[in-house]
Amino acid sequence: MPQVRRPKSYMARAQDMSPRWHVMDASEQPLGRMAVRIARILQGKHRAMYTPHVLTGDFVVVVNSAKTKVTGNKMRSKLYERHTGHPGGIRTATMEQVMGRDSTRVVVVAVKGMLPHTTLGDQMLKRLHVYAGPDHPHQAQVNAGTGKAKVSEEAKPE
């Protein structure tokens, strides 16, 4: 009986990937729903060439994290815990206190919980950039990824 050659499954390789940059505005968006969309982009699940064991995701820039909305009573009831590393060093803060100190931390923690808890998940999280205000320093990368880079008047060829 002759053997039938079956087509191999496609596996993406890291050198084949060219990550893009996405900008998301967090103002007036529910935190959880926004975090789900960000986690999918960081993992690369929005691409046809998604491979679970390869970093196939893109970069995400989140602006206006201070204007993120949460539903219900989460601002007063949701707790964030951290440990100082010393005995008895557990520190607890409500979401309201954390948002007052550093609103970017709330978004990062929400997205981190939705990523794989492995070294690959750590690499994905490094591609997340969160800013409290509307400005970010990644405009050149965003423009380069979409082909919208502008040429200044001095740099144009004659």
If you had to describe this structure to a student in words, what would you say it looks like?
- The strands form two sheets. A three-stranded parallel β-sheet has the order 1-2-5. Strands 3-4 form a two-stranded antiparallel sheet.
- It is built from six helices and five strands; from the N terminus they run E-H-E-H-E-E-H-H-H-E-H.
- The C terminus is likely disordered.
- It has one domain: Ribosomal Protein L13p, Chain: A (Alpha-Beta Complex), CATH 3.90.1180.
- Helix content is 31%, strand content 15%.
- The longest helix is centred in the N-terminal third of the chain and has 13 residues.
- The chain is of the alpha/beta class and 158 residues long.
- It is globular and about 70 Å long.
Quick description:
By secondary structure, this protein is of the alpha/beta class. The chain has a single domain (19-136), classed as Ribosomal protein L13 (Ribosomal Protein L13p, Chain: A, Alpha-Beta Complex), CATH 3.90.1180.
